[in-house]
Structure formats: structure tokens, C-alpha cells
Amino acid sequence: MHEMSIALNIVELAEKESRAAGGAKIRRIEVEVGALAGVMEDALHFCFAAACRDTLAEGAELLIRTTPGEGECVGCRQVMPMTTNLELCPACGGLLRMRQGAELRLIAIVVD
Question: Helix (H, G, I), strand (E, B), or coil: what is residue 36?
């Protein structure tokens, strides 16, 4: 389950940033996760709770913002939604190159 390693990294980064800012208790962590990043949100929430134990983020809320998949056709240059990592353009049959949807970013940390 790679969501556990993701959750551990999120908490580690949040703790580092909180300490650097002089914060004490982390109340909320906001992340952006692309719809095509291969991350299961329910599993990430579950792992996040475990990763927060005995850290500055214990009891913190995890807010996940999902970025939809979007691709651009390498042939006709049309931009369109993507629901999988490998898709063909419905207009010309060209390969869609992903423009967004694979993101995994720490957006904000709310601390005391």
C-alpha cells in the first residue's frame, strides 16, 4: 500500500514546515491529488491517521483536493478530459499527453 509511504511523507514534511514556522500543533493539512495519480483517497485518509500518531499532526484533519485528469492530443492539439493514463483522442485517434491529473502536492498546513 503506497498510500502509507505517501502519508508518512506528508506528515514528515508538514512537521518540518511547522517547526520552521515556529508552529506547535498541526490542525489541518491540505493536499492536492491528481485523479490519475493512482492514489486511493480512502486508503490515504486511513494511513494518514496512523502516520500522525505521536507527531505534531496527531488528530489533524486531512483535506484532499482532487485535480481532474486533462490531456492534449499530440496530433490535433485538442485539450480534453482524461480518465485513464493512456487514452486516444476521440476526434483524430492521436495519443493524449497528460497535462494535469498526476499531481501530489502539499498545499497548506494549519498550525497553532
Answer: coil
Q: Identify the helix (H) or strand (E) that includes residue 49.
A: helix 41-51
What cell does 37 get?
Answer: 495519480
In three-state secondary structure terms, 33 is strand
- pLDDT tens-digit profile of 34-84? 999 999 999 999 999 999 999 999 999 999 999 999 999 999 999 999 999
Q: Which strands, in side-by-side order, build the sheet including 69-73?
A: 79-82, 69-73, 96-100
Q: Locate 111 and state its grid cell.
A: 498550525
CA separation for the pair 57, 111 (Å, rounded): 9
Sign, Cα dihedral of 63, 12, 17, 19:
positive
CA pair distance 82, 86, nearest whole angstrom: 8
Cβ(56)–Cβ(89) below 8 Å: no
**Please, are residues 108 and 30 in contact by the beta-carbon 8 Å criterion?**
yes
